[in-house]
Amino acid sequence: MAEDQWEREERYGNDSEKTEVKQPAPWNETVVIRSARADNDVLVGSASQAASLLQDNWPGPKTSPAYQAAVTACQQAMNGHAPGYIAR
After folding, report:
1. Based on the number of CB atoms within 10 Å of its own CB, is 85 exposed (0-12), middle (13-18) or buried (19 or more)?
2. Is the dihedral of CA 78, 31, 73, 2 positive or negative?
3. Angstrom distance (rounded) from CA 44 to CA 27
4. Measured between alpha carbons, how far is 27 from 87 in angstroms, rounded to an integer?
5. What are the tens digits of pLDDT across the range 40-54?
6. Is 44 helix (H, G, I), strand (E, B) or coil?
7. Residue 84 · residue 46 · CB < 8 Å
């Protein structure tokens, strides 16, 4: 099966990422989050959106291992130290 554009950019980056400020590519699959506090689903399509959602809407203690792992994965993806699918 041939790779689509998002998968190639996720795996190898693209020419626009060779600048000094690296912007992570959007995820190739959107994550749907259903919050107990919200009446609707939230669609998350990037590590930066996920990090913002984690910071503002995490339901448990922010000292939990799950929260720390999620935030770390998002930060690494946003900084270009890990592929986006890890944060997803």
Report:
1. middle
2. negative
3. 9
4. 9
5. 788 999 999 999 989
6. strand
7. yes
Q: Where are the beta strands (DSSP E) in the chain?
A: 31-34, 41-44
pLDDT value of position 17: 46
Whole-angstrom Cα distance, residue 49 to residue 51? 5
Q: What is the rounded distance in angstroms from the CA atom of residue 75 to the CA atom of residue 59? A: 20
Please, are residues 35 and 53 in contact by the beta-carbon 8 Å criterion?
no
What whole-number distance in Å separates Cα of residue 11 and Cα of residue 51? Answer: 21
Spatial contact of 11 and 25, defined as CB atoms under 8 Å apart: no
Q: In the block, which residue shows the tokens 């000094």?
A: 20
